[in-house]
Amino acid sequence: MYIMAKSPGNWLIRHASVKSITVTVLVLTLFVNEYLVYWVQSSRWPVFPEVDRQKEMVVLLVSDPQLQGIRDEPGFPVGMVARWDVDRYLSKTFQLAYSYSQPDIVVFLGDLMDEGSKASPDEYQSYFTRFNSIFHSAKKSKLDVSLHTDVPRGTQEKLKEYKSKMNSPFRVIISHETMLPKLKVYIYPIIKEIKPQLLFSGHWHKSMHFVCDSCLSDNADTSHWPVHRRELSDINDYMYLDLTNSQGIQELMIPTCSYRMGVTDIGYGVAIINKEKTVRYTVLWLPRRYDVLYAYIFVVIFLLIFNIFGKLCFPKLLYNYRPYYKYR
Fold first, then answer.
1. Cα-to-chain-centroid distance, residue 180
2. Which of 78, 101, 144 lies closest to 272, judged by CA?
3. What is the CATH number of domain 44-287?
4. pLDDT tens digits for 111-156?
5. Alpha carbon distance 43, 45 (integer Å)
6. Are 94 and 107 in contact (CB under 8 A)?
7. How many CB atoms lie within 10 A of CB 183?
8. Nearest 10 degrees: CA dihedral of 266, 268, 274, 278?
9. What are phi and psi of 301, to 5 degrees?
10. Nearest-CA neighbor of 199 among 277, 270, 245, 251?
11. Where are the domains of the chain?
């Protein structure tokens, strides 16, 4: 009596096909690139510390999402796919960061749209709708001050109005453009009125920390800031900031959260602000999307080659296959 011997190799040859292998590779690639990559990256974020919500405020900081517009992007279908992909990336990563931090407030640090200044009313409305679909709504108060020129007329009065409403000894300035690296003559009128201990900024698309131990002191020098800077591209845990120095200011620059900005290190900032003038801060680094897109290109090229040669060679493999029979 003859029976066919069973083995994994025999089963694979009898059941595999070019089509089934192609589908399997595509499904695995999608799973890795659209789920596993995000899970692995978020699992590397530091453990969220214990927070006393009576004394501390958790702030999620979002900088430079710069939603891609229509005019400066390629035409259909490339531009549409590019906008769809970056919107999905921002939405997915923001939801992960929001779930991680459960913030009391979300602060957007500007450059929300890439083409907002040149958009038509209808285009601007479409960008605004996209923005709201990606991020949670946030209430805003606005004070526009250009930091490259002298302080505009009326700004001092506005600052004094704000100052009259401030009753907290702990003060924070939120700005799109970085402040401490700029010339003192442009910044000191604002700093003197508000007297902040902490600044949040974006614009450079980088993660940095600026420290000035005497920026609130009376100094006749209108050009010099004794500012020290440190790059935070390697931060992987919470750093501690002591802001009790009455003459000092510290500034945290938040990196961009969009992979379209041409930098590899992107993320969201998380600050835990204590009313005792201390801050714990970290960056939630995000997956490098371009690596994933390159992986898609590699897989597509591989599957094209596999299908071409597979259709030529696979039928011969099946034709030459001989089951192994064993006599009993």
1. 23
2. 101
3. 3.60.21
4. 999 988 888 999 999 999 999 999 965 444 454 544 445 556 666 6
5. 5
6. no
7. 13
8. 0
9. -65, -45
10. 251
11. 1-43+292-328, 44-287
If we measure between CA atoms, which residue out of 199, 193, 198, 197 comes closest to residue 156?
A: 193
> Which regions of the chain are under pLDDT 70?
1-16, 136-156, 158-166, 219-223, 313-328
Instruction: State both tokens at 4.
Output: 């066919």
Query: Can you give the C-alpha Rg of the chain in angstroms?
Result: 28
Q: How far does the chain reach from its first CA to its final CA, in angstroms?
A: 5
**What phi and psi values does residue 163 have, to the nearest 5 degrees?**
-60, -35
Residue 267 near residue 205 (C-beta atoms within 8 A)? no
* 300 beta partners: none
- Name the β-bridge partners of 89: none
Structure confidence at residue 73 (pLDDT): 86
Q: Could you give the CA distance from residue 235 to residue 267 in angstroms, rounded to a whole number?
A: 11
Measure the CA–CA gap between 80 and 135, rounded to whole angstroms: 20
What's the 3-state SS for the chain? CEEECCCHHHHHHHHCCHHHHHHHHHHHHHHHHHHHHHHHHHHCCCCCCCCCCCCEEEEEEEECCCECCCCCCCCCCHHHHHHHHHHHHHHHHHHHHHHHHCCCEEEECCCCECCCCCCCHHHHHHHHHHHHHHCCCCCCCCCCCCCCCCCCCCHHHHHHHHHHHCCCCCCEEECCCCCCCCCHHHHHHHHHHHCCCEEEECCCCCCEEEEECCCCCCCCCCCCCCEEEEECCCCCCCEEEECCCCCCEEEEECCECCHHHCCCCCEEEEEEEECCCEEEEEEEECCCHHHHHHHHHHHHHHHHHHHHHHHHHHHHHHHCCCCCEEEC
Reading the block at residue 3, the tokens are 């029976």
Kindly report the number of other CB atoms within 10 A of residue 265's CB atom. 18
